[in-house]
Amino acid sequence: MSAGILVRPERKDDRRAAEEVTREAFWNLHSPGCNEHYLLHLLRESGAFIGALDWVAEKDGRVAGSIVYSRSKILGDDGRIHAAITFGPVAVLPALQGKGIGSLLIRRTLEEARKLGHQAVLIYGDPAYYARFGFQGAERFDIRSHDNCYADALEALELSPGALSGRAGRFSEDAIFDMDEAAAEAFDRSFPPKVKLTGLPSQARFLEVAGRRRAR
Ligand SMILES: CC(C)(COP(=O)(O)OP(=O)(O)OC[C@H]1O[C@@H](n2cnc3c(N)ncnc32)[C@H](O)[C@@H]1OP(=O)(O)O)[C@@H](O)C(=O)NCCC(=O)NCCS
């Protein structure tokens, strides 16, 4: 399925290619256009960025997929702050999706994160995809969104058994995730123009999954 794919740490000279892949993968997916390539650009400069988990998938000498991780936390109900990590954006070039490249990138970097001693991964994503990697609804650990809601899209994975027991609280990702839309638009103009579309099924699916949340 994923023959000829090399999964390896990102090099500095891969960066723009990884941003292009991310832009292609997310364009019009969740909303008209996208800003995930700008998020990727910003994350690399953020103190929360985990350089050792910045990986790419390469096919025929070109970047075909990209994943990055950043430090995040759980603002514990017990008043303590618990460390976690978060991946994303994760992206594979549209023409190469569905061939196992994303799974390779995710599995390989989760293994690396475990080796590096990270305890738990928290992400926002579609449960239909991430359950295969062992992610469970964060509600199971009584972990809520920053605004204290149980969210189906908020998923958790323990990298060591029991890592999330007694870690109930609110998930908090790095402030860089709150992007400035105007700055994202300006950054996007450094790429070739692309048409923004509305009313796509993937956009409706995104809103549906993101909308599955309940106040505590
Ligand atoms: C998500 C992504 C990185 C997965 O990479 P990939 O190489 O296509 O994934 P794989 O080939 O390993 O797995 C394909 C499977 O994932 C499923 N899948 C991919 N994206 C999915 C999604 N958003 N929701 C549900 N399932 C998804 C496919 O339907 C396929 O399912 P199957 O194995 O049951 O047939 C890639 O599809 C992508 O870049 N998508 C656009 C960006 C994106 O959605 N990123 C994640 C945001 S949370």
The top level CATH class name: Alpha Beta
How far is the first residue's CA from the last residue's CA? 42 Å
The CATH fourth-level homologous superfamily: Gcn5-related N-acetyltransferase (GNAT)
Q: With helices defined by DSSP (H or I, 4 residues minimum), what is the helix count?
A: 6
Task: Outline the biggest β-sheet.
Answer: 6 strands, mixed
What does this structure look like?
The chain has about 220 residues and is an alpha+beta fold. The protein has a single domain (about 5-175, about 200-215), classed as Aminopeptidase. It contains 6 helices and 11 strands. The strands form 3 sheets. Strands 1, 2, 3, 4, 7 and 10 form a 6-stranded mixed sheet that branches. The longest helix has 15 residues, at about 100-115. The mean pLDDT is about 95. Coenzyme A (COA) binds near residues 102 and 129. Coenzyme A binds near residues 97, 98, 101 and 128.
